[in-house]
Amino acid sequence: MTSKPAVYEFNAAIVREPARSVVNGLRADDRGNPTYEGVKAEHAAYVAAMRAADVKVTVLPALESFPDSIFVEDPALVFPEGAILLRPGAETRVKETTEIAPTLKAMFGTVFDLPSPGFADGGDVLTTPKSVMIGLSARTDRAGAEGLVASLDRLGRKGEIVQTPEGVLHFKTDCSLLDDVTMLTTERLGRSGVFDGFRRVTIPAGEEPAANALRVNGVVMVGSDYPRTIEMLDRLGYKVVPLKTTEIGKIDAGLSCMSLRWHRGD
User: Fold this and answer.
1) Strand, coil or helix: 183
2) Structure pTM?
3) In the beta sheet, which residues pair with residue 78?
4) What is the Cα–Cα distance from 186 to 145, expressed in whole angstroms?
């Protein structure tokens, strides 16, 4: 009998090439436009790191009509048991779900639609060994979160609704899972109590965007602009893969949002 893979063990992922329109991506904090060439280079390095971690990556073509469509994690969720098509909270992104739906229906035997009403972004959803945490935010409302809990239940998973800190775009902007018992978190989210029961590793002050790290199999991918976080994780014994996120960071993005990841059975 084979053991069930950990929630951060993946052998399959979906990404989407950045469109040239990515320079017009949404952002809550205007730090200037990213360059297309810069985003493309960061995305290519990300895909290479995924493949180096033994993940088979399916690359979807760019969608010029959707500047934010590189961030495939927001319109859908994937699990070994099936996929859930979401309803993004930004009006300009709602139709991204329609674009990715055929791919998911071809790759998964079970695909559910998020019940109406309400909206939910994948960036607000963190899968842990205990539950699937859903952060309420400007992009995920109570109705959407409750509909997602119902959809997760149909997949045999437990959903848990929590609160994203005020002024934070997505729940996972401020946290990521390091291993079965450890959460990487900003101080503001860590003190909220949502991670009681987990060991908490707190991001050094001033490097808060580093909280959107990504554990993939034996490595932890971290934005290379955050040396103190990288040093801290290295000291704790994690195998860190630094990845440049300077350009995608200008459009409020991080590492988790650029892929849909799951463990596909044989």
Assistant:
1) strand
2) 0.97
3) 83
4) 23
**The pLDDT of residue 200 is above 70:** yes
Alpha-carbon 266 to chain mean position: 25
Say which amino acid occupies 150. Answer: A
The distance from CA 152 to its chain's CA centroid, rounded to whole angstroms, is: 17
What would the two tokens of residue 19 be? Answer: 């469109």
Beta strands in the chain (DSSP E): 12-16, 56-60, 76-79, 82-85, 111-113, 125-127, 132-136, 159-163, 175-179, 182-185, 199-202, 214-216, 219-223, 240-243, 260-262
Distance in angstroms (rounded) separating the CA atoms of residues 152 and 82 = 10
Banded model confidence at residue 1, pLDDT cuts 50, 70, 90: very low
Above 60 in pLDDT, residue 235? Answer: yes
Using the structure block, give the residue that is written with the tokens 């002050």.
205
Q: Match 């073509």 to its residue by tokens.
A: 61
N residues, the chain: 266
pLDDT tens figures, 79-88: 999 999 999 9
Residues catalogued as catalytic:
170, 257
Provide the mean pLDDT of the chain: 96
How high is the pLDDT of residue 30? 81
Residue 252 phi, psi (nearest 5): 60, 30
